[in-house]
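We modelled the chain as a single entity of 553 amino acids. Its sequence is:
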Amino acid sequence: MSAHEISPAKQREIERMTKPVLSEAQWQRLLTFGEPHDVAEGEYLFRAGDLDYDLILVDTGEVEIVRVAFGWVDETPVGTMGPRSFVGELGLLNGQGAFLSARASRAGRMLRVSRARLRLLMAEDDELCDIVLHALWARREMLRRGPAALTLKLVGPRSSRDFLALRRFAERLDLVHTAVELVPGDLGVLGEHGITLDDLPVAFIQGEPMPRATPGTVAERLGLSYQARADEVVDLVVVGGGPAGLAAAIYGASEGLDTVLLDAVAPGGQAAATSRIENFLGFPFGVSGGDLIGQASLQALKFGVRVYAPCEAVDLRPVGDDIDIALTDGRLIRTRTVIVTSGAAYRTLDLERWNEFEGAGIFYAATPLELRQVLESPVVVVGGANSAGQASLYLAANGCPVHLVVRGSDLGSRMSSYLVDRLLEDPRIDVHTGSRVVGLGGESALERVSIDSVGDVAARGLFCFIGAEPATSWLAELDRDPDGFLRTGTDVSVQALQRWQGLGREPLPFETSVPRIFAAGDVRRGSMKRVAAAVGEGSSAVASVHRALADFR
């Protein structure tokens, strides 16, 4: 069952959580965070598209939530909230603009809780924090299955890599949306609205089409792009939203640091592409990467981490007593400390037509999103580490005959033994050790793969898990090893240590060759490439951040 496919019992539980019953004491405490207003019938509390809006406390009166009319659909009621309730959903925490409207259906006394006051509530009152956070999350889950999902509609060819990138962005950020797949070369009814094939993919935001949509342009329209505050210097910027980055951001924010998290795609990293993690502490029955990252992202919002994605850093350099991070759009973020957790980029096979089939049969993840592209068809998985084994089992369990291609002769040399045993026992999986993929074939999409040891095999998809290169090319000033991984702590080379003489200390654990710039996770030389290890490194790096800030102050 995927993150968004739930049982009837779970559905009923979520519905109950959307409208929590507060005691008199809880309600009175909640009221202390709001500014009271008398609201007339028909008055809007916020409108769809508002980038800055408040949590609304309904003391008396009633509020109706509506999806506004646009284009081809009329206004649709979504729900009502009566006395001793609050109006809002998860977008209040992640900075997303409102995608629904709220107006008073009965006049009454209502209170506005600004986003700043809401974060104060989250920090100061654990009981109210849990109640509000559960309700905001549950409402997001409910909204994605109703008429609100049409407020963001993504349309494009199923085989388009740009359309796949849009869908991955929306799913990773947990946006309420609808995705419509087109047959390649067919516009459907879009042609009647002046949209051409060159305009695909299209994002309809509140009914307004955005041709040639990208995650970046959609994020900008939704209010999810970084916007600097006047003369702002944050305490900590974490670059990269994988397990190491999320852990660093959560620990930093929970310990009082003003924390910003950036990711070039969306939070999750390679972990979000993992279909099942079975050896992570606390999950005896396993957990999907998507579920793990989803819970971590919600935890980051709870502690006030400002998450921006897609938001790619392209330069990092000290400026006086601070550090400037340049983004692709030219904006600058000024910070006192940085933790680089930018991870690594997937390696590819040097084969003809590889670029042609990316997004049309070649994938670097095995999640429900990719599974929908291959539809119980035969597939090939390439790689000899845990990620390839987990992907093979996941695909086979969902009806895909699998050829697992491993270059080495020993399947257990880089893969956990529990995975090896299950792979060899599964009749739906053919394991080819000492083998290589040597060719790709098909018309507009992948249809077959050539394996040197067995010849051509039918394949609707090729899932590639052959390792990654560290994403450090933008960090020219930092000391790196010959493979591009960042040196930290006692591993920093002697030549790079010369700049430290004036500070009277050596690099702290996880600190790079430049003071107050740290690294954790896959990007760091010597790190263990495991989710649990990345979480440990990210959280541990924050301890060094505190020490560096104490010395600096």
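As a brief sanity check on the tokenised model: The mean pLDDT is 91. The radius of gyration is 25 Å.
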